[in-house]
Design brief:
Elements (H helix, E strand, L loop, with lengths): L2 H6 L15 E2 L12 H12 L5 H18 L8 E10 L6 E12 L4 E12 L5 E9 L2 E3 L10 E5 L4 E3 L3 E3 L3 E3 L4 E21 L4 H29 L3 H26 L2 E21 L4
Helix pairs in contact: 2-3, 4-5
Length: 291
Amino acid sequence: MYTSRLARTAVAGAALAIGSVALAAVPATAATPTGITQDQVLTVASTLRMDDPTEAQEIAAQKALRVVMNRSCAIDSDAGEYLGDNFAEPTQANATADGFIGGARVDNVVTETSRYCFVGAVASTVPGFTLQGTAALDVPTQPVSSSNVSAAAVSTSALSGDVFVTPPVSVGQGFNISAAPSFSAAGASTKTTTTTTEVKVADRKTKSEKKAAKSKYTKRLAAAKKNYAKALDKAGSSKNKKAAAKRIYVKARALAKAKYKIAIANYKLVKKSNSTTDTRPFTIGATLNEG
């Protein structure tokens, strides 16, 4: 549904030549723009792959693609820029990660110029998993004249999060797109699960330590009895209040005994964490072919 536009815009005849502004590539250290979600990327990719999507599916995918392109291409609306035609091609289907390569024409109503912006997007298809690996976006270009020196048009990035969009490659005036732009991503979707257990570690208590523990236990019992006596006095003839006071006393006595047992035991409880990582590798790619 989007790729048919491509033939009429960015790649047809490899003849994009619009003036004298140098190609600009955003540094590959840029992070995925906020507001782009895992669901948006998966929606675009899966809908593009459908033979006959419903109108609702197509509209949802178009909206999602526009969000990705709008937020990724650094569109400066204050300077007169707005998103024109957009187009995309899905990567091959994968059970671990899915994505697409997207392109858009960005027009400027003030300068009456245009530029083309390309990005690659990938998302984990497994809930709770995050991406690791690398992504590469290649937009081959050539200068219209020998006076224009082409900048690097390959953007390579480290994957992160449950969704990742490459830094954009923008082709401005003065350059042709010399071959079909392509996107690839390779790595793994991973999820680390940490469990905590308590284990007994030898810790032999001395006589003085046990004596101190016994003293604390005796004091706790005495305090519990004293509080119980006060509660009974306040309860008067109320059976409910007396019953509540007894429950509190029984709990306090049990807690004191439990603490005493721990204090004199010849071991201590130590929390031990164990982490396991589920790693699911993937390799995906797509090319914005003419057609």
